[in-house]
C-alpha cells in the first residue's frame, strides 16, 4: 500500500507507505484527498480511511537542482526500450559520439540501442554509418521522473502526476 504525497501547491513530492501517510494525517501535517476503498484503519482518536493521495498543509521548498541521475535503466526508460536507430526492442545503450572520440556519459549522448545496431555501429558515429537518430536525446522531464516509484503508479494518482508533466 503506497501513497502519493503532494506539496501544498499540488506538485508530486514523494511516494510513501500508507502508514507514513497516516502519521502525517494524524499529526495534521497533511490532508487526505483520495482514499482507497476497503478496510479502514482504527486508531485511538478515530477511524481513518487508507489514503491513496495526500496533500501537505504547508509548502515544502524543493531544491531547484533536482536532476535525474543518469543510469542505464533511466536511458532505456526514457527511450521506451526502443532502439534509437531501428526502433526495435532495445536492451543496451549506445554513445552517439563514442567515448574513444570524447563522447561524454550524458543524457544528450546516450540512447537506447538494440544489440545488433550496437555491434554494427561499433566505434563510429551515426553520420559515418549513414544512420539517423529517430529522436534527439535529451534529459527527461516531468513529475514521473522527479518522483521515484511512479513507474507502477496507482490509477488514482494519474490526475496529479499529469499536472506535473
UniProtKB/TrEMBL annotation:
Gene Ontology molecular-function annotations: endonuclease activity
Ranges annotated as spanning the membrane: none
Ranges in coiled-coil conformation: none
Record bears the keyword Hydrolase: yes
Keyword flag Cell membrane: no
Record-linked Gene3D superfamilies: 1.10.30.50
Pfam families in UniProt: HNH_5
Annotated HNH nuclease domain residues: 70-119
InterPro entries noted in UniProt: HNH_5, HNH_nuc, NA-targeting_endonuclease
The entry's keywords: Endonuclease, Hydrolase, Nuclease
UniProt-recorded name of the protein: HNH endonuclease
Species of the source: Microbacterium memoriense
